[in-house]
User: Which sequence fits this backbone?
């Protein structure tokens, strides 16, 4: 979500959403009796989602990037009580809360006391005590004020200081709240993670405080799959859609309407001004520097693989058929040779960034070896190539890789959707992580870049990707900028007039890498073609299955896709 909605648009969107929600509630009430009244749940949707994740035994570490003032700490207080009040055999353990301010710690402990009374759990009163914190410079004992609630289960909820040593000798659940603002988050995390050895749990949640802050670096490592932690993202609009302002109205005794929510939303965004993206929408502030440094890019350019470039004249569609065939002949000969050189014992993933007039269309193919290293296997760059010819070229490659392709991600913004759709007809269109099909049509959004670019950067940093040496590809990768903390393609194109590039290779590579991480399963086989030898071609066809016309192979590139040869092209 972003701040792009106007007040009127937000009101209309929320009115429609509420109408759907009310209809569902009315139906539920009708099913159990007219006298029943629909009461709001204790948790809002995002609060319930976080607690549900924490109740999952598979969640050892949870990282939450969130908007400010959405009540997530209140939900975590409920979880703390539920965990500390249990017997050991039911998973009970101590809970330790850490934040950067004593006032926040006191509020959290107070919320825990309220939840304990609401749940009816036997708990003692909130205690303030002095926790020993070593010696000062004069050798005198030093103490830090801390807070504690004890339960009949024998476990406690402790509000501690943010000093890493406060966790020494402790066991249980650790909640680090507003982690971006604590001192020395790295050392604090190191101390907290030690508790996992005895079945503990670590929760790190915060709003952002800059792209270079240790909290955002942690988030990027999690999104990049460098760390096996679970991740939750809750921005201001997501919280509103889950009922944040409705709950505020309920607490204040005010009537909720879409119009009042829209006006309140606009007022809050205006209040934060230039800081709204960071404070409300989980976008860490930063300049617009390059995303990948040139030395890192060049260090990964160690692979040898063909790069084929095809540029057609503006009047291509007005030429005679044999003239068009003549312009394409050399390209097809080289492409056939490149395909013949692919090692089909490997797996492959493809990415395709479509363009027609201004930018380049780039098809990039990555091989995946037994050690899961991704290597450039083939790059096709097309400028001024009509849509049907592009489809034919792409299909030719995908057909050749039948049975060895784990996925293909296609740019589906604008005209790119037609290519993705046509390839989806042939190879299966995929629409979700758990869906079937090889072709995933991607409509680029800020969220897509935010979630899927970090894994690619991690691949560069961890040396699990290898590219071909090419100065233009370096230019494209360097063109990706960090805008408001999110790596994305800027609007400005680089290059001379008529030959400008728009980070096209970077986009194709990102799509290919995304496709290489798609979940897949092989459940079919490709039968041996009835005519297996290229020497058994019928009269009038050349070795690629194209009709012969005079001195040139004719037809359009789409005709090329009916290949029938020893590599199983059908």
Assistant:
């Amino acid at each position: 979500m972003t701040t792009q909605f106007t007040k009127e648009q937000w009101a209309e969107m929320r009115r429609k959403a509420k109408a759907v929600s009310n209809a569902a509630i009315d139906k539920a009430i009708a099913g159990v009796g007219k006298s029943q009244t629909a009461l709001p749940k204790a948790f809002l949707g995002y609060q319930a989602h976080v607690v549900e994740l924490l109740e999952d035994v598979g969640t050892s570490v949870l990282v939450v990037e969130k908007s400010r003032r959405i009540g997530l700490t209140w939900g975590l207080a409920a979880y703390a009580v539920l965990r500390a009040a249990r017997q050991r055999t039911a998973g009970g353990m101590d809970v330790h809360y850490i934040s950067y301010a004593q006032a926040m710690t006191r509020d959290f402990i107070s919320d825990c006391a309220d939840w304990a009374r609401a749940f009816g759990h036997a708990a003692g009163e909130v205690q303030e005590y002095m926790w020993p914190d070593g010696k000062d410079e004069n050798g005198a004992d030093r103490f830090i004020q801390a807070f504690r609630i004890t339960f009949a289960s024998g476990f406690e909820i402790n509000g501690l200081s943010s000093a890493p040593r406060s966790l020494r000798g402790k066991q249980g659940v650790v909640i680090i709240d507003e982690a971006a603002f604590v001192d020395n988050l790295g050392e604090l995390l190191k101390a907290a993670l030690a508790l996992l050895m005895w079945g503990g749990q670590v929760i790190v949640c915060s709003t952002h405080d800059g792209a270079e802050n240790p909290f955002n670096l942690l988030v990027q490592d999690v999104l990049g799959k460098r760390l096996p932690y679970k991740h939750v993202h809750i921005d201001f609009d997501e919280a509103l859609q889950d009922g944040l302002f409705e709950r505020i109205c309920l607490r204040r005794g005010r009537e909720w309407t879409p119009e009042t929510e829209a006006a309140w939303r606009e007022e809050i965004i205006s209040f934060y001004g230039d800081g709204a993206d960071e404070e409300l929408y989980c976008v860490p502030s930063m300049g617009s520097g390059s995303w990948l440094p040139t030395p890192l890019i060049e260090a990964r350019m160690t692979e040898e693989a063909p790069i084929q470039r095809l540029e057609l004249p503006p009047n291509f569609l007005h030429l005679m058929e044999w003239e068009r065939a003549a312009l394409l002949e050399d390209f097809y000969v080289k492409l056939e040779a490149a395909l013949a050189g692919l090692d089909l014992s490997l797996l492959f993933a493809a990415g395709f960034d479509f363009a027609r007039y201004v930018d380049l269309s780039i098809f990039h193919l990555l091989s995946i070896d037994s050690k899961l290293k991704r290597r450039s296997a083939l790059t096709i760059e097309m400028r001024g190539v009509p849509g049907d010819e592009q489809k034919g070229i792409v299909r030719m490659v995908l057909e050749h890789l039948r049975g060895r392709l784990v996925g293909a991600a296609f740019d589906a913004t604008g005209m790119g959707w037609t290519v993705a759709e046509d390839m989806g007809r042939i190879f299966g269109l995929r629409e979700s992580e758990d869906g079937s099909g090889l072709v995933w049509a991607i409509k680029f959004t800020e969220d897509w870049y935010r979630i899927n670019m970090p894994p690619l950067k991690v691949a560069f940093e961890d040396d699990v990707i290898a590219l071909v040496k090419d100065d233009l590809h370096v230019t494209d990768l360097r063109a990706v900028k960090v805008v408001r903390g999110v790596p994305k393609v800027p609007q400005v194109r680089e290059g001379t007039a008529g030959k400008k590039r728009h980070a096209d290779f970077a986009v194709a590579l990102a799509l290919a890498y995304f496709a290489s991480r798609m979940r897949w399963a092989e459940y079919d086989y490709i039968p041996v073609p009835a005519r297996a030898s290229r020497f058994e071609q019928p009269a009038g066809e050349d070795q690629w299955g194209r009709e012969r016309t005079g001195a040139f192979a004719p037809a359009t590139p789409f005709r090329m896709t009916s290949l029938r040869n020893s590599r199983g092209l059908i």
